[in-house]
């Protein structure tokens, strides 16, 4: 038996086709879990299921559409219901606050926040009925450290932290845990453009106390723990996975004799 005790657990992962989502799917499948991969990108899901084989079920699902979430949940209920939900899907529509379009602001909140609530409701029903389950929300250090010119991104990620805490309060007595993973700088296919320039990559690495940019697998390892019985007394918490970046502010303040 695996130390994490995730064998044969049904784990629903949203945003499964992206960099962190793919790493999450691979990590849970490696632990013997039954992975249900949700993404609106059907092509990405096809590639993922080819990699994971029979250990994964792929469901095309647009988290901006409540009916598609409910349809996916009904399919998972046919499999016995979700044991674990990983809320990972998210979008970024950048823009300064003085000019960002209302449509872009609303779209980010719809996916990044309301989508987390709707999937938690839909897949959490089986957990609440069973009296056991774990939900892990992927937030960001941008939820605590405001990220400029990013529209609703920081606001949505901050709201996820509070949503998770409220869920922990309300659902804890019914056996369901809720926690957050907050990534820092992560190298994924979507962020690869930032690291294509060696100088920019080196400057970013220099900002991180551990002197490296995270891989998606770094996030997956923490999510595995939070989803597993090893974290059975952990709820309402945020684990920041950023190599110490968010703790570096005072190190930027000039002091005599310190560089």
Automatic annotation (TrEMBL):
SMART domains, per the entry: PKS_KR (SM00822)
Transmembrane region(s): none
Oxidoreductase listed as a keyword: yes
Stored PANTHER family: OXIDOREDUCTASE, SHORT-CHAIN DEHYDROGENASES/REDUCTASES FAMILY MEMBER
Classification of source organism: Bacteria, Pseudomonadati, Pseudomonadota, Alphaproteobacteria, Rhodobacterales
Protein name as annotated: SDR family oxidoreductase
Top class in the EC scheme: oxidoreductase
Keyword annotations: Oxidoreductase
CDD domains (alphabetical): SDR_c
């Amino acid at each position: 038996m695996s130390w994490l005790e995730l064998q044969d657990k049904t784990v629903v992962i949203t945003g499964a086709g992206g960099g962190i989502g793919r790493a999450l799917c691979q990590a849970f499948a490696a632990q013997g879990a039954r992975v249900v991969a949700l993404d609106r990108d059907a092509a990405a899901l096809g590639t993922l299921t080819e990699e994971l084989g029979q250990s994964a079920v792929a469901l095309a699902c647009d988290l901006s559409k409540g009916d598609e979430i409910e349809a996916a949940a009904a399919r998972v209920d046919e499999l016995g219901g979700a044991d674990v939900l990983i809320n990972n899907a998210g979008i970024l529509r950048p823009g300064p606050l003085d000019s960002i379009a209302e449509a872009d602001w609303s779209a980010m909140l719809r996916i990044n926040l309301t989508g987390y609530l709707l999937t938690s409701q839909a897949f959490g029903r089986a957990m609440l009925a069973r009296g056991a389950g774990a939900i892990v929300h992927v937030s960001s250090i941008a939820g605590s450290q405001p990220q400029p010119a990013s529209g609703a991104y920081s606001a949505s990620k901050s709201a996820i932290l509070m949503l998770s805490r409220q869920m922990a309060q309300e659902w804890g007595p019914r056996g369901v845990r809720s926690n957050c993973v907050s990534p820092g700088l992560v190298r994924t296919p979507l962020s690869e453009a930032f690291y294509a320039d060696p100088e920019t990559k080196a400057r970013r690495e220099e900002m991180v106390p551990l002197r490296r940019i995270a891989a998606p697998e770094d996030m997956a390892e923490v999510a595995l723990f939070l989803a597993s019985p090893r974290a059975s007394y952990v709820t309402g918490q945020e684990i920041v996975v950023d190599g110490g970046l968010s703790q570096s502010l005072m190190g930027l303040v000039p002091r005599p004799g310190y560089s």
